[in-house]
Amino acid sequence: xxxxxxxxxxxxxxxxxxxxxxxxxxxxxxxxxxxxxxxxxxxxxxxxxxxxxxxxxxxxxxxxxxxxxxxxxxxxxxxxxxxxxxxxxxxxxxxxxxxxxxxxxxxxxxxxxxxxxxxxxxxxxxxxxxxxxxxxxxxxxxxxxxxxxxxxxxxxxxxxxxxxxxxxxxxxxxxxxxxxxxxxxxxxxxxxxxxxxxxxxxxxxxxxxxxxxxxxxxxxxxxxxxxxxxxxxxxxxxxxxxxxxxxxxxxxxxxxxxxxxxxxxxxxxxxxxxxxxxxxxxxxxxxxxxxxxxxxxxxxxxxxxxxxxxxxxxxxxxxxxxxxxxxxxx
Length: 330
Fold this sequence. Notes:
The protein is α/β, with parallel strands linked by helices. The chain is built from 12 helices and 11 strands.
């Protein structure tokens, strides 16, 4: 197998594109794909301030790396979830990556900010850890972006993630979620624009880029992810991809091209009035946002179980720690 560019021995095969690359030209191809995604959807503009959500895994660190290679000065944002050694190693990996490259990293420790770890939150509320974790991460990304002056948040969602999410939403016909799914979600008052520059690249392609670029990342999956429906959807799509390369790409891209616009035009205007949460000031549709409701309930139950002092009250303002040099715009 030879490199499609130089004819030398190839190290990575991209079957869905019927191409193969040596290490150097694979990295060039990968970065060019990210550049194409950014330009195609106008994800990042000249006056934007960019915040990259980084967990310590391959996707988010590759995202941060490629944005940096393309000339964007993105600050990283890491949430320490308090999931034992898993979270400790994730933070160590992320800090090492940022320090090696002289990048600014913003860190919020959930327990330090809100009094409980994510596993403790799940225990006292009776909700699945992924549910409370996802809600808290979305809140913190929006909150930190708003408080620190970032108007764009980039996440490392890859093609496998997006195709699996689409399959799950289609399986249950979650129309509200379907109309929002895509590589970019425009911001509104109080909410930063969300962009997914890796949305067209598979998990395997991201891993290959990380390996060939010498990026050290956390290999282990979150211990609470076991049994998640998204893993089942990925497994099903993976089997189809093996038999029919390009299945995931066609499934996602054709939905975005042919179906999403029809779905949007066929749905009545939502007419939902956006308000400010009475507790934290974040954008919501009710008097109090879902994040504050969840944590207020958690505090009530945690105090009964003596996990928190009797006089403790939930403060929605996260405690921010900044490491490294300040980052600006491109």
